[in-house]
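Is this the right way to post structure tokens for a design question? Let me know if I should format differently. Anyway, here goes:
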């Protein structure tokens, strides 16, 4: 018995902030941001908004498309590092919002790899026969964790949520293989402490630079490219699939230069790589499921296509999945 994604959904906060908007806050330019990252705009949380609302919206869309009610789920797994509480988990708050007592609900903290991690854990547990219907969500609000005076990081991140309903199913479709990797040795390349403190872009409370996202960008760039290339090759080999057979790769949308470098090393042409980083920025754990949902909506994925998901993020963590759609 394997597992298959039967429906997806996505949602963002209401406010889109363009690169031009950012030039009013810091010494940057549309040209710099686009040429170094591929980002043109991102959605950010405003004071009074809740990421829980955004994640619940994405989840409800996915459930509706799957033709399931929350009460029919067996588990909720949320890839996030943006819980508003130290505890309870984001997943428990989402469970309450969706009305899905008393199934297990828990977070998987793997930063930008959060959705790949949560999806893999869901697949492993469904293969073991534990669950039949699982809601997997990736959601983050890293814009509330940046120092808005630090142009090196503040321009990169956006907020949002993506959700996928997975069902256990025999047969050739679904998740073919998953591979997860971590390297705590590199924890200090991307980190943030005191995640309980929220400082949306428009709030008067400013996050102190000590409590804001710390990133060693150039080092991270190199490791992200190398690790995503390696894990993509390994997960394909594990699934018995040749890279050239992959129809579409839906990578973590951190930076267009990272995405292009990984695709080039894998020998995949641009038409086989889905990107939407220009409109969302780096939404951390939300980035892969938001991209997957858009790829489906725009018919870039069709039944029986071979799809690869991959990501790398703080931890460091990285991972990939191969799916037969
Ligand atoms: N606007 C204008 N100038 C800027 C900006 C900005 N927003 N940010 C930095 N600069 C300047 C710097 O101050 C520096 O100027 P200086 O040499 O006078 O000091 C110059 O641009 C070059 O800075 P670098 O940091 O060397 O720029 P680089 O070309 O490495 O690009 C970037 C920086 C985009 C952050 C790149 O390192 C990167 O993409 N790293 C990966 C980071 C990432 O994606 N993190 C997300 C999480 S990890 C993941 O998801 C995989």
């Amino acid at each position: 018995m394997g597992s298959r994604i039967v429906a997806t959904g996505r949602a963002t906060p209401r406010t889109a902030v363009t690169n031009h908007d950012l030039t009013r806050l810091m010494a940057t330019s549309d040209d710099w941001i686009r040429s170094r990252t591929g980002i043109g705009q991102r959605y950010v949380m405003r004071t009074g908004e809740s990421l829980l609302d955004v994640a619940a919206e994405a989840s409800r869309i996915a459930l509706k498309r799957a033709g399931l009610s929350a009460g029919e789920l067996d588990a909720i797994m949320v890839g996030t590092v943006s819980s508003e509480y130290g505890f309870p988990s984001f997943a428990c708050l989402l469970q309450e919002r969706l009305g899905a007592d008393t199934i297990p609900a828990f977070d998987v903290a793997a930063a930008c790899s959060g959705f790949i991690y949560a999806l893999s854990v869901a697949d492993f547990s469904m293969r073991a026969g534990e669950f039949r219907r699982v809601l997997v969500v990736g959601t983050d609000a890293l814009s509330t964790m940046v120092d808005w005076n630090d142009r090196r990081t503040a321009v990169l991140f956006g907020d949002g949520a993506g959700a996928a309903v997975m069902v256990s199913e025999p047969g050739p479709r679904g998740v073919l293989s998953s591979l997860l990797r971590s390297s705590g040795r590199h924890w200090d390349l991307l980190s943030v402490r005191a995640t309980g403190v929220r400082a949306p872009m428009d709030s008067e409370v400013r996050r102190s630079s000590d409590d804001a996202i710390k990133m060693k960008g150039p080092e991270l760039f190199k490791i992200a490219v190398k690790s995503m290339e390696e894990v993509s090759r390994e997960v394909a080999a594990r699934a018995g699939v040749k890279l050239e057979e992959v129809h579409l790769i839906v990578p973590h949308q951190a930076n267009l230069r990272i995405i292009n470098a990984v695709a080039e090393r894998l020998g995949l042409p641009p038409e086989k790589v889905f990107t939407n980083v220009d409109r969302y920025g780096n939404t951390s754990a939300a980035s892969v499921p938001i991209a997957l949902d858009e790829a489906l909506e725009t018919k870039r994925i069709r039944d029986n296509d071979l799809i690869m998901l991959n990501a790398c993020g703080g931890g460091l963590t990285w991972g990939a999945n191969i799916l037969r759609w």
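Format looks fine. Someone answered above. Worth noting: The two ends are 16 Å apart (CA to CA). The chain has a mean pLDDT of 95.
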